[in-house]
């Protein structure tokens, strides 16, 4: 049994005793945590009376007389509907899961205490503006009054796990913001994995599939670097070492890449296990947004669209809310646990976000001082490691203690399996004795994100909006904009590192050589566009320099871009006619068509050897289906099933023999890597990657394609029990299920989890429905794990009535009608229309809850 399975078994053993309790009392426990949506209740701490209108989907519209009461009420309502979700996330950040789940998750607690998001946030709070502190104080007070007044009437998860939440702190809101940044950070994973690919396959093959052709993996041969850890015979000058062709440093202790693999392995595995446990071991970073000017709109006003792609879970990451009063009148999507609106509109502007895919994390190797094991070399000096004593409390068990070490750059992350990242002086492994690994991440840079979103929520024009973005940090974002006066715009926002190596790729930096960050790209140098002549702006996780304007000094931003398929599909739509309306964009957001699939198959079937491939056989039938297909993966056609199965086998047959099974399985986890790598070599029928190293002959693309088609046919026959390819409908094989952290327990599946629902598409369609390649290979399933976490369309022709849909529902209470009442609509591409004025709420007979001080 592997470690991950043992973890789940341990959780199961802990939770089994409460299943009887849940079976007998679940209904009453759930209903007791239903809170009123009408009438009057007292909320101690309010300054004045607050009105909260709830629409038919449980979306609250808060009307208050001052800013303090607005944010107090938001905190109160977030806790009312999502308290356990908020508590669980802060426990992850603080490394306190063992207190509720037991010893089987201690690995995750050690991981996050070592990363130190909680430590950073306690130091960060003092640097915030007085305005931001006031907002956080009001929000925190609202959360805590709800907890205090409902201490014995809390969500069922608290009863199931037999604990009660502690009071909320302002720092907890900051932790949740940085946890979102960490979850969206894939740089740590891709740097490590591409390094493993480099180690396994060598520079030539890695260069051939590296996702970004504009980045050189190596620096100039024989580039000399000062080595402060070695001296010449006179011990007066540092010796010099030379860069190898890979851009990494050779070292007397052995192969550098293997050292890196050893030092990073424990951190990598712990992080990956954490993401598996919470079902977020996915690309997790895609999104679409576009905006058109009034000249491209049927109604003569801008229309803005956004659908962030996140891991699909229950409840949704998003909580929809409107905040009116104290100078605010803003509505949209918020994060439970954090004040303000993240994506939405006020009466003057609207905005949307997509992940920039910033390369915002670097691993760094430091040399330990051979004369003192508690020192390391940095900047030509021997520096003491800082140590932090940690104590973890474990449910139904004794507490455990260990030590965390930190450097001037970041925490020491090497050696988890030795003693929990702990006492390196007791480590007898030669590599650990000589080296340590740390990392630098933009999430550890102080900023004022609360001020940023307060400014955005209050902005009335482009200049105010742009000024607010200066306070944002991580994760760096593409932000689109539209306003009531007809203007549209785009801005990159967030901290983007400037490295001494700039555009050359070295996945681990030798820190003693000073290969560190020198600063961040100046805000004024970041990509921006305002009222472009095309009349539209698109972002879809591709390189902003490709379609906006170059950052003025040509700084390196990333190599982590998503395939350009979604961007190109949106662009094709927007170029297909001159004007659009909201209904057009509802169809666009739900499109399952993939230019990536179309072009991959075009490259493959341009091969003359594939023209008459087994024309009358089963293989020939599915080849014909793919050859004549337009790339539209509707759930009611079979081409989607055939193509996606073929794609997985093609990727496996192309890459696994060179990488080996373990590295290959890691390589396909962040799926933009295999997608873009395959895209790079697909047009070359003789590319060396198509040769199977396990045979004596030399295979070409044709051989690998034919093998993959044959495997596809056998796989789908077996999976469906039917030999007719026309019956292999994509929706029957491809579905989406929103999972709850406790939903892995079979008896709780139907209560906590939502779905499954049939769906179409894949990761490269506008309607992103990413499944895991590993799930197909290991157990033959195409379960969607990433998708549109919500969809929003704001039409400035009637800004009060925007269109939105959440992926699940507003409530975190599994028996509430609002726990899943949007999920089926979401799966069918439907929307709800929102209202923004009190007269409209009254006219629509929304329920009214009065909060009295």
Summed up:
It contains 29 helices and 32 strands. Helix 9 (187-201) packs across helix 11, helix 20 (618-627) crosses helix 24 and helix 21 packs across helix 22 (661-667).
| Major sheet | 11 strands, mixed
Silhouette = globular
- Strand sequence of the main sheet, in spatial order? 1-32-2-3-8-9-10-11-18-19-23
Write down the overall mean pLDDT.
Answer: 88
Class of secondary structure makeup: alpha+beta
CA radius of gyration: 27 Å
Total beta strand runs? 32
Please report the distance between the alpha carbons of the first and last residues: 56 Å
Which percent bin holds the helix content?
A: 25-40%
Keywords:
eleven-stranded mixed sheet, 853 residues, ten-stranded mixed sheet, alpha+beta, 29 helices
Question: What this model shows, in words?
Answer:
The protein has 853 residues and is of the alpha+beta class. It has a domain of 127 residues. It is 37% helix and 20% strand. The strands form seven sheets. An eleven-stranded mixed sheet has the order 1-32-2-3-8-9-10-11-18-19-23. A hairpin with a 7-residue loop joins β29 and β30. α20 packs across α24. The longest helix has 30 residues. The termini are far apart.
